[in-house]
Design brief:
Elements: E1 2-6, E2 10-15, E3 33-39, E4 51-55, H1 64-76, E5 83-89, H2 91-103, E6 109-114, H3 117-123, E7 128-133, E8 136-143, E9 148-152, H4 161-178, H5 180-186, H6 196-214, H7 231-241, H8 250-267, H9 273-285, H10 297-305, E10 316-322, E11 325-331, H11 334-345
Parallel strand pairs: 2-9, 3-4, 3-5, 5-6, 6-9
Antiparallel strand pairs: 1-2, 7-8, 10-11
The protein binds nicotinamide-adenine-dinucleotide and zinc ion.
């Protein structure tokens, strides 16, 4: 088993088959009740002895109505301040179950059990919780840390192809912004070809990179923005795709976003063409999209400009200067942004 310490106050346990006796890792004696929140796709029978709240899957249900449903269920189940919530699922369950727990009775303890690779390497770590609102991704939420994260790689076996690969969108991003050797390793094979042991190593390194970045800046005043590479354009496309039939998964949107923001980095003379090509090839090899048919460019530009991370109406991008190095707070001329949209739309 691998362990990563986050912010000196909780641990990410990474192992194969560790969920079944997680009570050896987390002391449950102090809790009056344990409640699992999961969605319909998640094999929740592993934790059969606990009460469950099962919600409808997907980003379209990451909203305040589902939060109300969870709060109601927590009431019905007679949860009190000493109850523990276990979020068993992907990033949607983690963000939403965490938000419901962090606000119910002014805050219950919660444990994150990621069942997607994406949530293991990203969403479960760092304490950002929330829901989409008024068509904007994660507009309403809070920062609150879990009591721990149990990352059991055996849970990923049932992930469908797209959901498996999308995790590598965030994994590759970690390499691109912080560690070129890691980038080379995680792009050396197709995602499905990594062994469980290698996958554990990858999750550990990704959690470490995220931890190193967020540790000094938990509420995202500066350095934490490094992890937003690919997300300014990615979130805009992801939000707009929610109302379409074939909506993008988060990791897919981030992949297209990295292609576009990589192109901006290239056009602004920050990276070499060779590095840009390496990035595009790596995403493609991981089975991730780098192109996207933009049906309404005005809407995309509008979404980018209303990014919730904008300051005084100006959007600042995180760009890359080489594979393994990113820079926050970059202003981008309109025509460069347009060219980046042309690139992904071509
Ligand atoms: N809080 C953060 O810092 C942070 C970071 C990154 C992403 N996120 C959020 O995470 C969300 C994306 O997470 P995600 O990609 O895990 O999405 P998700 O939770 O919607 O999971 C993707 C799909 O896989 C299914 N699924 C999950 N685990 C499964 C399993 N083991 N077997 C079979 N099917 C399974 C789910 O039901 C869902 O249909 C987005 O809402 C994003 O905003 C948050
Ligand atoms: Zn992300």
């Amino acid at each position: 088993m691998e362990i990563v310490n986050i912010l000196n106050n909780y641990k990410v346990f990474i192992g194969d088959g560790i969920l079944k006796d997680f009570d050896r890792l987390i002391d449950l004696n102090m809790y009056s009740k344990v409640v699992i929140i999961a969605d319909k796709n998640i094999p929740a029978d592993i934790l059969n002895q606990y009460e469950k709240i099962i919600i409808s899957p997907g980003e379209q249900n990451k909203n305040i109505e589902t939060i109300q449903l969870i709060w109601n269920k927590l009431l019905e189940l007679k949860c009190d301040r000493k109850s523990l919530v276990i979020n068993l699922g992907g990033g949607v369950i983690g963000d939403m179950g965490g938000f419901a727990a962090a606000t119910f009775m002014r805050g219950l303890d919660f444990l994150q059990v990621p069942t997607t690779i994406l949530s293991a390497v990203d969403a479960s770590v760092g304490g950002k919780l929330g829901v989409n609102f008024a068509g904007v991704k994660n507009l309403v939420g809070t920062f609150s840390q879990p009591i721990g994260v149990i990352c059991d790689v055996s849970l990923f076996k049932t992930l469908p192809g797209r959901e498996f690969n999308e995790g590598f969108g965030e994994i590759i991003k970690h390499g691109v912004i912080a560690d070129s050797e890691y980038f080379d390793f995680v792009t050396s094979k197709n995602p499905r070809d990594f062994t469980d042991k290698e996958l554990m190593r990858i999750i550990k390194r990704s959690c470490e990179i995220k931890k190193e970045i967020i540790e000094d800046d938990i509420t995202e005043k500066g350095k934490r923005k490094l992890i937003n590479f690919g997300h300014t354009i990615g979130h805009a496309l992801e939000s707009l795709s929610l109302s379409e039939e074939n909506s993008l998964l988060h990791g897919e949107a981030v992949s297209i976003g990295m292609a576009a923001e990589g192109k901006i980095s290239l056009d602004m003379g920050k990276i070499l063409n060779e590095d840009f090509q390496r990035l595009i090839k790596a995403l493609d090899k991981a089975g991730l999209p780098v192109k996207y048919k933009i049906s309404n460019r005005e809407k995309v530009l509008g979404k980018i400009k209303s990014d919730k991370k904008s300051e005084k109406g100006i959007v600042y991008f995180t760009l890359i200067s080489e594979i393994g190095k990113a820079e926050i707070g970059q202003k981008v001329p309109d025509e460069t942004l347009e060219k980046a949209l042309d690139f992904i739309n071509s």
